[in-house]
Amino acid sequence: MERRTFVKSAGILTGGLVLNQFKTLAADSAGIFKIGVIGCGDRGKGVMHVINQFPDKFQITAICDVLDFRLKEAQKVSTGAPYKSYTDYRQLLDDKSIDIVLIAVPLNMHYPIAVDALKADKHLYLEKTMTFTISQALDLVKLAKSRPKQIIQVGHQYRYSPLYYRVKEMISKGYLGKISQIDCRWDRNGNWRRPVPDPSLERAINWRMYKEYSGGLVAELLSHQIDFINWAFDTHPTEFQAMGGIDIFKDGRETYDNVQLMLRYPEQGMIGNFGATCGNAHDGYLFKIKGTKGTVSLLTDRGVFYPEKELLKEKGLVDGVTGATRITWNKEGGTPILAEPTKDGTWYALKSFYEKIASQTLPDSNVFTGAKTALSVHSANQALYSREIVYWKKEYSVI
């Protein structure tokens, strides 16, 4: 049986929802924005590589990290002259020529550096999770409201992927029917450690493993999927249950290496299951959204729609969902959501970030949505480490 993809052969940018997001704006004439990067670890350098793919929009001019060897590694990312280099981020913020600050530091430092960057009149690309605590998230929202001309984008990059946009559209149009279950995993088989050249640098380098600096697997991995559900359904969980432990690596770490969350979304009648382990990599990244008419199964760059049997009996309905002229089925009975895999979500996020700064409009992943996801992540971690049910609080409504 032949099958069609969810997008017409003319390309994935034909739909109005995606077209509005990715069209070339007149604001492209705004010029090149200069960027200072604070935090040059794996994520910081990774984003730097993507920034360099937009030479007509961005120019990295300065970098900062407390570790000298990280600064040396980051200099290798330069495509031109060496970057100005700092070990004190305040010195970077003093540079009046810098328009944008990228913050990719340990989670406990997100908030203080973000506050100082905003007070230094910089636009801000703040990596996820937005803040280390709930109170910091609420305070950052208040500060952002007082500085409306500064654009703050939070690094939940899947909000910008054409694939995830399409899935959000499918949900809003009811193509999946009544959705009741979300199943997510982000697994790996390894201790999650980085090499430490000096034992005194253990906590500075492997900060993700220590509660003083990190929200562990929930903040570092599962936050992406939690954020997408918040966005796709315009919601947030209100009840948080969790369990976990240090079950695999008995190496002095404090954050759990094996976690399972169960979140309740009563307005939608949904249960979200979010899990991660450092002891098995078979599933890797897994993201399933299950409704009465079908299931969406997502990777980071591709996805498949699996219709329920009853849907197939309704002539033309699947074609109406896909928008194609012919449908081909894989051996599991699914059809691709997009014809081709998408780029890294960070590429789409940075493209949109430029447009939002130039047009002075609110990013899709902004300080308000970033706060909502941070509150969700930290509530889940409270449930995880306290072994108690945690509930969304009324005072969070300010976001």
UniProtKB/TrEMBL annotation:
Domain (Gfo/Idh/MocA-like oxidoreductase N-terminal): residue spans on this chain: 33-156
Positions of the GFO/IDH/MocA-like oxidoreductase domain: 166-296
Cross-referenced InterPro entries: Gfo/Idh/MocA-like_OxRdtase_N, Gfo/Idh/MocA_oxidrdct_glycsds, GFO_IDH_MocA-like_dom, NAD(P)-bd_dom_sf
SUPFAM superfamilies: Glyceraldehyde-3-phosphate dehydrogenase-like, C-terminal domain, NAD(P)-binding Rossmann-fold domains
Protein name, entry field: Gfo/Idh/MocA family oxidoreductase
